[in-house]
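Lab notebook, page 48
Experiment: co-folding of the full assembly
Goal: obtain a model of how the components sit together before planning crosslinking
Operator: M.T.
Materials (sequences as entered):
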Amino acid sequence: MAETLEYSPKTRLSQTGSNQYIVEKDLDTEYMTLNMGPQHPATHGVLRVELITDGEVVMKATPHMGYLHRCFEKHAEALDYQKVIPYTDRMDYLSAMNTEHAFVMAVEKLLNIEVPRRVEFMRVIVAELQRIASHQVAIATYGLDIGAFTPFLHIMRDREHILTLLEWLCGARMLYNYIWVGGVSHNFPPKFKQRVAEFVKYYKPKVDEMMALLTENELFIERTRGIGILPADVAINYGCSGPMLRGSGVKWDLRKNDPYSIYPELEFDVVVPDGKLSIIGDSLSRHLVRCYEIYESLKIIQQCIDKMPEDPNFDPHAAVPKRIKPPAGEVYARDENPRGEVGFYVIADGKGTKPFRCKARAACFVNLSVLPELAKGNLISDVVAILGSIDIVLGEVDR
Amino acid sequence: MKPLALLVPDALTATAVPVQAENSWVKAFESLEVFGVPVGIFAIPAIPLVFIALYALYVGVYGERKVSAFMQDRIGPNETGKWGLLQTIADILKLIQKEDIVPIAADKPLFVLGPLIIFVGAFAAYAVLPFSSEFIGADLNVGVFYAVSIVSVEAVGILMCGWGSNNKWSLFGAVRSVAQVVSYEIPASIAILVGVMMAGSLSMQKIVMSQSGELGILHYAVFQSPVAWIAMIIYFIAALAECNRAPFDIPEAESELVSGYFTEYGGMKFAMIFLAEYASMFMTSVILSVLFLGGWNSPLPNIGGVALNDWTSGPVWGAFWIILKGFFFVIVMMWVRWTFPRFRVDQLMYLCWKVLTPIALLIFVFAAVWELYVR
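Observation: model returned without errors.
Model output:
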């Protein structure tokens, strides 16, 4: 059923800012309900946004989701802890490593096991590689939404290097099942570290090139600057996280604010927009945060490579428990995904090898809830720009 | 009024001999009869039509795919035939075989007629394009005016497509497109007027002939007035908008409006719209070259005894030069398309009404004064 808005000139006047003349002379137009998605090139998957428009101006935007609902949480209750990990991959399929990491941390907390130091380094390296790959997709598709096709393919070319590295590491390109409870599935192959270092060296100038091609383009700035401004208080009230929140100028990054793994030992900055190029909180700010986070991730990877302990007889399965049967209890573990805070709330009943309840806190789902707030009063083209800057992955929104 | 007072010494210009266009090929065609049937009359429009088909096939679609592939670090079509040369033919074959679907809620007459009108609008302008000193479909004395006005018919076709599809996205695309085409005709026309004033004629052949000379490129209108190059750039930008090419492709904006006014089209109807886009790209490129870059004149100068200009002039050379110039601008349009993001609707209108139109008007006045008192 299409939603309706109350139709009266007065509310329209305040909403559109149209001038008095139009109202007095009864030159009013009618609302039109426009269905954006689920098959639409700019909704990044199967999202349906119901737009109520006045000409090209959006009066109300309502996201409808659930087209990709796969009952993750119910599935998790029927599976052993190890077997849930591949399902977490399929939630946010662009940042599978990070999501795995969050779930695995939750189970490790339940079991209270210590992970070898080298494993922590390996996890952080793959997680940061994954963060770069994820931001690359976000930036590339954002350019695509704005109408720049060429940067998309340039970025995808570079992303291929990361996927090749991860494929070499564990055999999969997107859904890895690499991070296991207490360890990882495979040790780094010989020379893997050198290859990663080579990639870091190769990719830094390419980020500059990408910034010059896309971010510094005058047309791109015109399209995104000042569009969909999200004030910091609204962002916090809605529970936004990740680049959404940092784009609004809030310095909040779980790697710093609730440190996990070996992040406290590493040096990196939490990126917030400085307000020189963009207006703080707008679509361009969110885009810039993603761009600069790539530099930070490269920094982190370089440090990890330098600091990582070498061990020729290293067994990545050494701390992996044979049978996971945690004592009764409940735990919440979270990590900083490329799209924001992803957390797993796991309850164990102490009787079996399956979680009693597993609740996932998805970053995209929370971030998407701000869309109606941002889209109101903008043009249809801007809705595309805003939706792109939120950077949703429908697999995670619907779970 | 001395020609070329600015750039070239008088002694050189005195010897410049303009080429006289006689349109002799067209006249030969007109009188061609087979068993009393005037075949030639039908052959004249058939020649540009065949040209459009070949050009759209190879420079348009294949060229665009290869250019974009080159810019995006890809290979592009390379499987079908040598270097993928048969790819476009395969695509066309596929489009021909497709079922001709008309949506059940569509307004059928409008839906069917729309693509035809768009194509006719783009194609009709080819009647006045001077392909050579000896070949022009119709050497109208108001050729430029005709070209500018017949292209506007496209807007009607686009509106018919968008309205007839009975799809909200199509309607958005059509309304945007019509607003855009109509708006951008104004700076385009004023820029064209600058060129027309410099040549002193609306006839395409006369405009080209006014730019003939032994010094080749130096006789081109763009070098005859200090503001002509601005008019040329304005016309080029407006032409991009009129062809609905990026960065002005908001009517078809694939990421916003799905495909704009041709969302519901498939098969040959889609191919017609596609063909019309490429046809109007080449058409505007040729008009640009005719007005400012000497049309079918050779750009090479005569240097003393080395008479490069004479050697590279003539009816066949003329066809070569104008098609080359046209293709050059078509390639530039592709280059622009694969580089820039898209404008927003309001930014597009801002650019047209608050930037291009005032500048075009200023140039128009300046060019008029220049023509009257300086040249």
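Interpretation: The beta strands of chain B are 302-303, 306-307.
Next step: discuss with group before ordering constructs.
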